[in-house]
Amino acid sequence: MEYAVVQSARSTVALNAVCPYYTMYPLDFPLRVLKAHGKPGDWVIDPFCGRGTTNFAARLLSMPSIGVDSSPVAAALAQAKLASAEPDRIVECARSILQGSKQPSAVPEGDFWKLAYHEKTLVQICKLREELLVECSSPTRVLLRAILLGALHGPRPKRVPSYFSNQSPRTFAPKPNYAVKFWTERGLRPDEVDVIAIIKIRADRYLADLSPKVDGMVKLGDSRVPNTFDDVPKARFVVTSPPYFGMRTYLPDQWVRLWFLGGPDFVQYRQPEGQLQHSGAKKFAGELKLVWKNIVAHTTEDARLIIRYGGIHDRSAEPMDVLKKSLIDSGWKMVTAKAVPDSDTGRRQVRQFQANPKKAITEYDVYCHHA
Ligand SMILES: C[S@@+](CC[C@H](N)C(=O)[O-])C[C@H]1O[C@@H](n2cnc3c(N)ncnc32)[C@H](O)[C@@H]1O
Questions:
Q1: What is residue 336's three-state secondary structure?
Q2: Does ligand 1 have an atom closer than 6 angstroms to the CB of 70?
Q3: Which helix (H) or strand (E) covers residue 294, if one does?
Q4: Predicted confidence band of residue 314 (pLDDT cuts 50, 70, 90)
Q5: Ligand 1 near 69 CB (within 6 A)
Q6: pTM to 2 decimal places
Q7: Tell me: the pLDDT tens digits for 23-58?
Q8: Is residue 134's pLDDT more than 90?
Q9: Residue of minimum CA distance from atom 12 in ligand 1
Q10: Following DSSP, what letter does each residue of 162-214 receive, concatenated?
Q11: Is ligand 1 within 6 A of the CB of residue 352?
């Protein structure tokens, strides 16, 4: 498939935007590198797949792919990037869940939940949540779940609502105390929304013109763990962007989406075990090394590992030093490192974690071969 064709058919790429994800990279990056160096049928791995941008790029180029991420939100979104279903079936599935007589066994309580959602909307969200927690294996349900995750919170529109919540950020979930104060001070009450209408608008927007399904899978897992890639075919490409050293808030910042996926109805701040540990630059480089070592055995002799990497300002360690250290004795050899030219892109991860980002820290695209 021609890259130009993919780019011009806007709706073909629409599914990638089904739900925002912290520190996602632009679709253009994996598309460009896979298009330049690969061919249809080549297997691709992303061991830190996030919302599944690499998997989606691979799909557009008819390349099968594997994604792994230890965040349940990331895994749920990335799974959707490999799924196909007609928009009508998704709406039908949601409607039949909501029409069912079974009431949700639990509806969260407290000031945050009272002000975040209209009480009737919250009951509907809970019904969908509980049903999808029991069964979410079909592509229709995987896509419905991703659509719901994308609609859970976001800005209140002037006319037709496209989110279920009171005024909120769309990329990350607001912290409860801050949100309650914000809504109360401004007299913002949640509207009752038409949940099915929102699902329909979104299903039509994201799924109208999907590219054909390709082989592949996304696992909720820890890429440091030795057997994570055991049942995976050998890949020619690993295209990925690990957390930048010091970025630890992937899960607390997604706490409402995590709740929807079965987590608690409050924020948990402690760093979960499946995430890379950021206690020191040396330790972090060692954690990354475990991942590079793990995947090298699951790649072909001529495989390339392509890493987008940068840094954040609250850590003094030089990002490229951390990355280079992680590659020593990892089975991979760095061949080139190219600075990502666009300074906006350079601020991508930093911008999302700091209110007033200082000078952008340059990001690099690092190309490696087997050592
Ligand atoms: C920079 S984000 C990847 C974003 C992705 N490129 C995208 O476009 O959405 C890094 C991801 O690494 C995941 N992660 C952190 N530690 C992990 C581990 N040990 N195993 C697998 N994934 C991990 C985080 O949950 C996060 O989703």
A1: strand
A2: yes
A3: helix 281-296
A4: low
A5: yes
A6: 0.93
A7: 889 999 999 999 999 999 999 999 999 999 999 999
A8: yes
A9: 48
A10: -SSSSB--SSSPPPHHHHHHHHHHHT--PPP--HHHHHHHHHHHHHTTPPPP-
A11: no
